[in-house]
Specification:
The chain is an alpha+beta fold and 334 residues long. It has a single domain, classed as Sandwich (Jelly Rolls), CATH 2.60.120. Helices cover 28% and strands 20% of the residues. Strand 10 and strand 11 form a beta hairpin. The relative contact order is 0.17.
Length: 334
Amino acid sequence: MSISHLPIIDIGPLRRGIGDSEVVADAIAQACTDTGFFYVTGHNISETLQSRLTDLSSDFFDQDDASKNRVCMAKGGPAWRGFFPVGGELTSGVPDIKEGIYFGAELGASHPLVLAGTPLHGPNQFPDYPAELRDVVLEYISEMISLSHCIMRGVALSLKLPPNYFEEGAMRDPLVLFRIFNYPVPKESEVNEWGVGEHTDYGFLTVLKQGDNGGLEVKSRGGWISAPPIPNSFVCNIGDMLDRLTGGLYKSTPHRVKNSSGRKRMSFPFFFDPNFFSKVEILPLSKSKAELDDSLERWDKANPHAFEGTYGDYVISKVGKVFPGLKSKVISGK
């Protein structure tokens, strides 16, 4: 256990395909039914790659806004990629005290989904400086896709499903979003404000690489607890659609961030979500739809169990609230 009381799970047996995967699955089941958050170790992601990603990302954010805005999100079109400045992203209608750059699966102009103007699909915007960031980001995304499939095999086993249930179903061609965030040292007037306010994630799985400065808090049954960085680990949490699929058995847990370190804070969340066109249907469990309405307990008073449509429909509805100025570009494809 960590000092935050979030479980630490060694996924080495899942990663290597040997050992007792059922023990790992049981640990995942307990974590997902308790807090919806857990650390993973034994992931086999190169520490050298992680360090290069951190250093190059820091170099990018150390530039002035004019330089960073050469790859601003307004130029990303429907792909929803690029840089946004501090205050450019909203959580519950409140500007976040962070800046960031969005990436995703790299799709060329001739890809059928790009030709069709499919939202959240397309080419990335990579900055000219630092030039090495492009290759490192693409390598990291590739590694995280492999790791996320591995974790989802553990999630499938934890639900007594075949290990490839997700990989052969809703995650056959997953929606992949990777974000790099920089939380600056708050101004005196911002000291008591949240870098990111209370929220839940949208899809199935988030795999987070934290910087060294902490600041992440998770809403447990007993109140808010910290999720401090643990060397060479990742923090995982489940999102609204896995909550929906499991009929509320696995909860998408609210979390928030405040940078109180006195230094800039770096964060690297990787979102591993269902295929854009997939419909996330509830597994055959015993709860009724009435029992699944937990909207009054949720941060946004929304009920993902009442949602009808594709995952693309769901995530686009969220985009409009996070970046209202970009909603028309993402949806129209222009």
